[in-house]
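agent> Task received from the user: take the single chain below, predict its 3D structure, and emit structure tokens. No templates, no multimer pairing.
agent> Plan: (1) validate residues, (2) run structure prediction, (3) serialize to tokens, (4) report one or two observations.
agent> Step 1 OK, no nonstandard residues flagged.
tool_call: predict_structure(input=
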Amino acid sequence: MKRKKVKINFGNLILLLIVIGLLGYSTYYLYNYFSGDKDKPNEVDTKYENKLVKKLKSLGYTESEAEKITVNLNEEIVNNIDKKYDNLVELSEVKYFHIENIDRYEELIKNSEYDINEVVMRVNTRIDKDFYTNITNVQDQDDPFVIVNKYYALSKDYVPSDLINVGNGQRMKKEAGEALIKMLDDIKNAGLYLQAQSGYRSYDLQSSLYNDYVSRDGKEQADTYSARPGHSEHQTGLAIDVSKDGTLSKAFENTDQFKWLKENAHKYGFILRYPSDKIYMTGYDYEPWHYRYVGIEAATLIKNEGITYEEYMVKYKGSY
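)
tool_result: status=success, residues=320
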């Protein structure tokens, strides 16, 4: 029996192979996507990452170090790294690391025994430098999260536009003042008397107070408990000194009023601004009477973590 020749249409064969290839690729792609491999870098990404690794290796980093750095830092930062840093791998793992501070981090590591996280925090809050040096003028002075301390200053003519009376002849910014009034009412309902002792202060008033303290105790001593003009939180209208009897002293710590505030102030958005264990950070002696309004969310975080407002700004606001 004579076999019948099969006539092959090569055009259709090629088309069939293309269809099979596309189906195979689609199946592979869908499998990887739904099996969790969608976040796996593609070939282009891998080539780019290798390019960054290669660049870092040329600066003296090992391949392992280079790979860790490229994972921790974005491409713009990596592209701007121009030399070998001894501690960049460990530093890059800290959430609030800033490449622009790298030289100061390295210097503090070299000259101290602080761990990496403490080094980054100290540099980011500027306390690796002397107080009242490298001062920055506050740009948005009405920002409810404005930070004013020995490195950040308000302008001489700044006055909050929405000051309200909070009792005892004192004023605060509206949101902070309303929160204070509510807190004072609630502590009164708890059977305790507390009054607003010192709220908003103008630049000129702070200047007069500070100069009097310098005349009495000398500048070095005055700087431990009084802000220089322009550096006082009272000028923001967000700070308040409270008292049970018209006096301000560390003895306030032993009162029922202080105990109540310790448990409840954060519920109204207030924090104890200058705690006893953070003098090195704030630059001020312990003031159990000085409270700063930051809002309930921030105040709760600060209380629960036992941190200062400076540390909060670094950890949760990403800048300082």
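agent> Step 4: summary for the user.
The longest strand covers residues 163-167.
agent> Done.
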